[in-house]
Design goal:
This protein is α/β, with parallel strands linked by helices. About 45% of the residues lie in helices and about 20% in strands. The strands form 2 sheets. A 5-stranded mixed β-sheet has the order 3-2-1-4-5, sandwiched between helices. The protein has a 5-stranded mixed β-sheet with strand order 8-7-6-9-10, with helices on both faces.
Length: about 350
């Protein structure tokens, strides 16, 4: 089955053609990061307008690079939630038009489910069940992936997502957007014990996380240093921050693995590209005698191939939609009520 996939949930416009959920025929991404860096973060209206400009030529490129014709497309998968509502609507309405025009099924895909499915493209042997740490700019979840479309949330952040915290810490340090790669670069050579930063525990919810206190601690350290005109060890602060995020994510992941008994652990999402987190998770999983699946860096960020991969399994599960399908800024990965 050849699926044309569209992703436009934030500031990347992406299109891909994926066969049978596992084989990438094409995968093209147009990033707006340089544009939004001028404003210190994503401007939703600008992102939406750029998606409008990019989605048609990008889809044409994906089809051309796939080597197949429009008549060989068997379905159109599209991110419909969660994300910036205006950005989502651009991709969704384009996908509706293609679905209607070609007379093929429209397949709605949850963005985070797509991130998890990126691993199917990288590891042909990977099959559910497994435990997944899904961590990005807008989401931080521990998910028990019981089947390709059956997922159960075990733990989540109660406030800021880990990636959002990276962006806000980078902003207060004057690093700009996107914050994750810039914080990681600054942290190299820094002392991770330079600053004592909080690692929150949620009473009664051992698998849940919180990053707002960590974010506030970094903001206060920077502002206090500025007000007192004291020198700030920025490298040390970045390394300490990175270590704190890593400690929380890895400890919760390993506790979830213990509780569920899952032997396979998967990472997904943009924050899974962070070197400190990848190294710490690899070490912990190895010591526990379990198997870790870490996607290559290019499959950690937003792309359409991951949407096509998950779209295939959503289609097999009978999850297609009509022209009445709407976009949603937020939606649980379990798709409750749908």
């Amino acid at each position: 089955m050849n699926i044309l996939a569209i992703e436009s949930s934030c500031d990347e416009t992406a299109a891909a053609v994926v066969r049978d959920g596992r084989q990438i025929l094409s995968n093209v991404v147009l990033s707006q990061a340089d544009l939004h860096a001028l404003y210190g973060g994503v401007v939703p209206e600008i992102a939406s307008r750029r998606h409008v400009e990019a989605v048609v030529p990008l889809a044409d490129t994906a089809l051309r690079e796939s080597g197949i014709g429009k008549k060989e497309i068997d379905g159109v998968a599209v991110t419909f939630a969660p994300g910036l509502i205006g950005a989502l609507l651009v991709g969704l309405n384009f996908a509706k038009a293609v679905s209607f025009g070609l007379g093929v099924p429209l397949i709605p895909v949850h963005h985070v489910r797509g991130h998890i499915a990126a691993n199917y493209l990288c590891f042909p042997e990977l099959e559910p069940p497994f435990l997944c740490l899904a961590v990005s700019g807008g989401n931080t979840l521990l998910v028990d992936v019981e089947g390709y479309t059956a997922m159960r949330v075990l733990g989540r952040t109660k406030d800021d997502a880990a990636g959002e915290c990276f962006d806000k810490a980078a902003r207060v340090l004057g690093l700009g957007y996107p914050g994750g790669p810039k914080m990681e670069a600054l942290a190299k050579g820094g002392d991770p014990a330079a600053y004592r930063l909080p690692r929150a525990n949620i009473s009664g919810h051992p698998l849940d996380m919180s990053f707002s206190g960590l974010k506030t601690a970094v903001v206060n350290l920077v502002h206090n240093a500025e007000q007192k005109q004291e020198a700030l060890d920025k490298k040390g602060l970045a390394a300490s921050f990175e270590q704190a995020v890593s400690d929380v994510l890895v400890s919760r992941t390993m506790e979830a693995a213990r509780v569920t008994g899952r032997s396979a652990i998967v990472a997904a999402g943009g924050v899974a590209a962070n070197g400190q987190i990848r190294a710490a998770l690899s070490k912990a999983v190895h010591e526990a005698g379990k198997t870790l699946y870490l996607p290559p860096l290019r499959f950690c960020g937003d792309n359409a191939a991951m949407i096509g991969a998950q779209g295939y399994y959503e289609f097999l599960a009978g999850r297609t939609a009509g022209m009445e399908l709407n976009a949603y800024a937020s939606m649980d990965i379990e798709l409750k009520g749908r």
